[in-house]
Amino acid sequence: MELKVISFNIRCCDDKDGNAITERAPRLAEITSKYDADVIGFQEFTVPWEKEIAKFYPDYEMFNKYRSRQELESAPILWKKDKFECLDTGYFWLSDTPEVESRGWDELYNCWRMCEYVILKHKESGKVFTYMNTHFGFGDKGQVDSANLIYEYSEKISQNPTFVTGDFNMYPTSLGYEEMTKHFTDVNSVTINDRRTTYHGYGTVNDAHIDYCFINDKIKPLSLKIIDETINGKYPSDHYGLFIRLEI
What we know:
The chain is α+β, with helices and mostly antiparallel strands and 248 residues long. It has one domain: Endonuclease/exonuclease/phosphatase (Deoxyribonuclease I, Chain A), CATH 3.60.10. The chain contains five helices and 14 strands. It has helices spanning 21-33, 47-56, 140-157, 175-183, 187-190, and strands at 2-9, 39-43, 45-46, 60-63, 73-74, 77-80, 84-93, 114-122, 128-135, 162-167, 185-186, 211-215, 220-227, 241-247. The strands form three sheets. Strands 4-6-2-1-14-13 form a six-stranded mixed beta sheet. The chain has a six-stranded mixed beta sheet with strand order 7-8-9-10-12-11. A two-stranded antiparallel ribbon has the order 3-5. β9, α3 and β10 (162-167) form a beta-alpha-beta unit. α1 runs parallel beside α2 and α3 packs parallel to α4 (175-183). The mean pLDDT is 98.
């Protein structure tokens, strides 16, 4: 079964110069629609995004858990309603107490970080897979600890084909990346190997490759593309998205 995946940090808040959420949401929808993704992982999803995603992605169901009562931000997962049955959902915090709402290992902002996951069954083929979506904090130690926790939970959750997407806030030269690739394969590295920036800051940054899709050894990577399109020169976010094709 071929699976089409999008991962996209959609930027949590309103920005100036035509980059409010209500202005960016139609751009995001227009750009992502042509990829016809089976599943989507967003990062920096916030309350103002709720009605926009409901409006522009009606063919998808969504699992969402905000990372704390103080920080209404999340990394939800969407899947096509007609193609998949959801068998299970869950989440955990990237902290020493992952089962409890807790601040984690973000060494720069000292905020809550978490991972959400779904277990989906493809209705036509009966194949089952686990999809994890996350947003790492900053700092080598926190990223290494987060990578280890992601792997630990991926093994505990299921023995399914498993992949992890997200904004990892780490470079391919980072210790956190090194730790993730001890357990998973970076799809980019074994397909197109495109190390261009994924965080661009509305066109002001060109050296921040920090968004990834990692897979376990039960998945075959087919391709990856950095989604760098704009609409009339305007961005859908301050990140580029990823479009990934996997064989489950």
